[in-house]
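[stage:ingest] chain + small molecule (guanosine-5'-diphosphate)
[stage:ingest] validated
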Amino acid sequence: MVTFLAGGTGTPKLLDGAAEVFDPAETTVVANTGDDVELGGHLVCPDLDTVLFSGGGVLDTDRWWGIAGDTTETDDELHRLADAAGLEPGPRYLPAEAQTVGRDIARWRRFSGVAEFMEIGDRDRAVHITRTSLLDEGNSLTEVTQTLADAFALDVSLLPMSNDPVATLVHTDEGVMHFQEYWVHHRAAPEVRDVEFRGADEATITPEVADALSDPVVVGPSNPVTSIGPMLALDDFADALAETPVVAVSPFVEDHVFSGPAADLMEGIGYDPSTAGVAEAYPFADAFVLDDADGTDLDRPIVNTDTRIDGTEDAARVARAVAEAFAEVS
Ligand code: GDP
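[stage:predict] done
[stage:export] tokens:
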């Protein structure tokens, strides 16, 4: 058995070829939910969805989110309506008092659907309607995720990190904003001063996650701050990682990041934006997989390979390096 911790890009890329090395029937993926938002009343879980769509063979692999070839008629019409009605485009947060009423799982991350600021494809939206409706029918996010995983015929087990709300809020020179406002709306332009995981103090890991963390864990190439950070903020999560073999794949080549806002976010919370900073952020990692061109000297075993993942073969190569790293530490 093996467990992968996933954000929205790096680990789903790795999973795409991991089956050659790790049997999918014995693989669990724990996905970050700090990025989730409620948009127009629907709970959007970007990191869970990337794994669902990728496993279901429908992911748009140019963008690494959404469904390939999806239409955007509803999104287009939302913008046309807002424009015609003279409504300011988003992000439009619901009022402060509305952030903590009703559906608990969506606390502190509720946005109006008026001119919605994240593009949601039509088929993609059907997933959010189904998810939210099943939650409203009384199911937990873990149960709903299992149902959706069945619908997409996933061959791995997929778990949200918690059934409780955790909202990743970025404190910037332009104020406090949800991660999705920072990333999707502002394209990571504001200067990061701090990152807060609101709700993490009260949130707990589920029995399913606790069980998955008793197996060897792979921290895929992920954003350490906003993909792995929300998990580490949960009580018991980091303790469980300290007790089990953990191999981490660096999302950097020395101080060069492959994609996304990881470097700015790491710098903003006081870590060196580099492989060395990732190692500092992951004291529980027993070994690292680093790129061939990454000469970072770490105090833990290193397996080098070409860590650029652009398709199944690359992913299988990195997965083999992960298996080699496990062999060195167990
Ligand atoms: P998201 O895309 O922000 O949701 O976040 P992830 O947590 O999935 O983080 C993506 C991280 O993976 C970024 O920091 C990238 O540098 C890294 N990444 C993206 N593509 C690759 C790749 O092909 N190889 C490696 N090693 N890292 C990658």
